Write the structure tokens for this entry.
Amino acid sequence: MARYGMALDYKNCINCKACEVACKEENGVLLGADKHRIWVGVKEIEGEYPLLNIASNTFYPSQCQHCDNAPCEEVCPTHATHYDENGVVRVDPNKCILCSYCMNACPYDARYVDDRTMTVDKCNFCSDTRLARGETTTACQATCPTKVRIFGDLDDPNSEISQVLREREHFSLKPHLGTKPKLFYLM
Amino acid sequence: MDLQKIIPYKKMSLKELLVPENKLMALIAVVLTTLFLIGVAIYLVHGHHAYAVTREHPWGLLIAMYIFFVVSSTGLCIVGSFGDVFGFKDYMVVSKRAIFGSIITILSGFAVIAFEIGHPVTMMIYNVLSPGLTSAIWWMGTLYGLYLTFMIIEFIFLMRNDMARAKIFGLIGLLVGLAAHSNLGGVFGFLNARVVSNGVFYPTYFILTAFITGIYLIFIMYGYKYRGQPFPDDVAKALTNFMKIQGLLLAILMFFETWKMLTGVYGGMPERADTIIHILHTKSFWLGEVLCGMVIPFLLILKSKGTAIKQMVWASVIGMVGIFYMRYDLVHDTQLFPMQTLKIREYQLPPSFVDYFPSTAEMMIGFGAIGICMILYFIGTKLFDLDHMPEHH
């Protein structure tokens, strides 16, 4: 079994939002739904012309961090949120009671209510779609024009993501919470 | 099956049962219950869209009202236990009424939460089939279910004047209730991502404020029963004692709150200090929680040295308004700080605290449930003898 994670070469992001579009198309996210599953966080340029702080202008693609120690999984009263065999944090809509505890417990604001099933949903690394069809990439990764995203098995030392994480400095979000995210931002 | 053999009650016709003892209170109860039903109808048509909760603020007024009712229930259970569980004779007179109150308040709480949880039937199935034992909500819900069962059994034995058995089930019910209630505090205390709520404060604060709520409610119930007339000696004695205990409890609560706020602000820790300072600038904290919930009743207790039990009834009504604000604020404050990772400066919008104001449907269901509680209380006081306790047990 794999342990999937994703590395984000976020400085390459040009905020084209192709990843959001591809995710919606692949995973059937409702049209008009904003920041469902994945999003690009925008930090605009600070300062006044001509003293603009160019370095402050960054784009941060983000999504569910697929934590190894996920608070959402811990707080779920019915095990609707669970780890699958690939370490992906998943939601079983048949078991979800919409108590919203996971939404409150997630430090990354990664969860939303799917208006069709009225259950909580989030990114699942295309586990129901592309991975289920035997593909090895996620929709957001496959579509990215600047190759921001590297998806793969963290337990496989020869996978691209493992190599990149060995070679490049990286950070994860809110590491002090001990959630052990599997999304890594490459520096 | 003869129900009378299981639980003694006064036999009366439906008409006798439904004729109100006090027309104004009956009208308020009916109006509130009607609002509850209209709110439920709106919810059934529109689902969760009828509520003002959002992704950033998924818990709203209904969670606050659920907590309000279950805090009341646990509080009345603690107050009732003084007499029938711990055997303090001075408090025996209030036990039946308090335990009955604990049952109807938790039922009202369940009525609210049934329309907050998106899939209550699924909850009942998968709570059993795939229990999430690390979830405070699982423990809280399961223990409250057990608690209600024990409270009903205790009440049946109380009605039969079987004090020995009432004591056993009362003790079990009290312990399960305290566990359930501190778990409800744990629901917030376990939220590592929400620094204002995370930690030991809420599980202990919930028990303390439950006790305070129980005493407020016992004053309101007796104040209503003996409106326009003096309290009988035994009731007056119990209430005077409770008023003095309330003084101590309110002092402890003010002490707790002061240190919560001081430690929250101290050092200017990001997220926590900002949120606490924001809370300290809200009217609902100062006027609702502090003035109504603590200071007004506390000053009355101090001024009268714990003897003004008639005025304390009104102070308790004000106190319950404060208790509502405590519940509402703890839910809202937990969610104040946005979790929007890496999307906090979008399109020139500065980061701001998350906004929430309940929708009409939420208010109808949340406040309407007070009507359900009142109706259950009026029916209960007609059906059951909630006053007389056996002399010896």
About this structure: The beta strands of chain A are 4-8, 38-43, 58-63, 81-83, 89-91, 112-114, 119-121, 149-153, 170-171, 183-186. Chain A touches chain B at residues 35, 39, 41-44, 60, 62, 71, 74-80, 94-101, 103-113, 115, 118-119, 173-174, 177-178 (CB under 8 Å). The radius of gyration of chain A is 17 Å.
